[in-house]
Amino acid sequence: MKILDTESKNQVDYATATFKGTRLINGQTIETVNKNHLNFWISHRFGAINSGFIENFFGLDEARIRLGLEYGITDQLTIGAGRSSQEKMYDFYAKYKLLRQSNLIPVTLTLYGSNAISTVATGSALESGTVMKYYDNLERMTYTGQAIIARKFNDKLSLQLMPTFLHFNKAETTDTPNNILALGAGGRLKLSKRLSLSAEYYANFNRPSSSNYHNSLALGFDIETGGHVFQFHLTNSRGMIERQFIAQTTKQWSDGGIFYGFNISRSFSFDKRAKGMNK
Hints:
- It is a single chain.
- Helices cover 9% and strands 47% of the residues.
- By secondary structure, it is mainly beta.
- The chain has four helices and 14 strands.
- The longest helix is centred in the N-terminal third of the chain and has 9 residues.
- The chain is globular, with a radius of gyration of 20 Å.
């Protein structure tokens, strides 16, 4: 019995399925894609609810979309890319799970970095109305760095913090800083084996007082069906990459500036060993 007690104390028990997918709502979670697996993401965002019934059918007459792929190089390392219709934006990113929650480590830590580039014609206007003139492709780029820290408290509740650094190669105005510091917080409450509620909030720390931008708040409802994850959500952010929802949210919940939309994730396995075992 003493030998069994010693072995059980030395055994490492890792937390699993802290979140249902690699995205919480707009932003990332600590989850990475399994090795040799591919995730296909479809993110869809309708117009604002307060845009009127006759003019815009409460937002259903317009939409933004992002298509993305992410692949597991290892169980800890994921790479991904996507394309958003808003600003015709391309984004490229990598995630690495540095620490994993267990009976020895209280949290999971995942590092995330991305690069995004706008490909709209120079002289196009942002959501805020600011006209952006680009003189080279470097001015179109934005970089994001995040440390995503999460803890699964029990089978139902998982919470995470997302300290974030954003760098714009070209600031929107002379009053807008090139570097932005923000802190995100989010979580998931599991209702059943396949249903859960989620929430996400990003606070921007060095936004100028003259800015017309606001902090991003999103609420969601997740459904897992086999290899699919369906997420329905409400948010005051129209954009679906960090540059847009952390730094360029123009609407507010208080005046009905709420966008409704959904994310759909489909996972594909390229693991030949797993396929062989299933034969």
